[in-house]
DNA sequence: CTCGTGACTTACG
DNA sequence: ACGTAAGCCACGA
């Protein structure tokens, strides 16, 4: 199992209505390659299978999506799952899924 | 092998 | 708060 596959694997583990951060993924994977995680998700060959939109920055910021500032779509998708976004940030106190 | 790039994080001014 | 710098690691050229 290579690095990218691990990332996808853990993304799939995120329950509906929850999100996680790059840092949390790095922690469970025992790596500090936060950047590499982002790179892997950018590739995201498992597009609908892996909910990469549930992965946000450590401070709750949305970050990017599909390589661009398509945060609008991302916000809407997250909102559909019951996640409220305030000032382009996610309330980690309520929605952060810890491994 | 080295280099550049990036959906990151932390620290500092 | 904001910008910059440094550290980090996978990936492709």
Task: Provide structural commentary.
The model has no long low-confidence stretch (mean pLDDT 92). β3 (85-86) and β4 (89-90) form a beta hairpin. The chain is mainly alpha-helical. The longest helix is centred in the first third of the chain and has 10 residues, at 3-12. The chain has helices at 3-12, 22-28, 34-43, 71-80, 92-95; strands spanning 20-21, 55-56, 85-86, 89-90. The radius of gyration is 12 Å and the shape is globular. The strands form two sheets. A two-stranded parallel ribbon has the order 1-2. The structure holds a DNA duplex (13 and 13 nucleotides).
Give a brief outline of the structure:
By secondary structure, the protein is mainly α. 41% of the residues lie in helices and 8% in strands.
Q: What spatial form do the alpha-carbon principal axes imply?
A: globular
Q: State the distance separating the first and last CA atoms.
A: 19 Å
E-strand count: 4
Low-confidence stretches: none
Mean pLDDT rating: 92
Q: What is the helix fraction of residues, given as a range?
A: 40-55%
> Measured on Cα atoms, how large is the radius of gyration?
12 Å
Structural class: mainly alpha
Instruction: State the strand order across the main sheet.
Output: 1-2
Determine the oligomeric state from the structure: single chain
Note the run of SSEs as H and E: HEHHEHEEH
Features of this protein?
single chain, 99 residues, mainly alpha, two-stranded parallel ribbon, two-stranded antiparallel sheet, 5 helices, 41% helix, DNA-binding
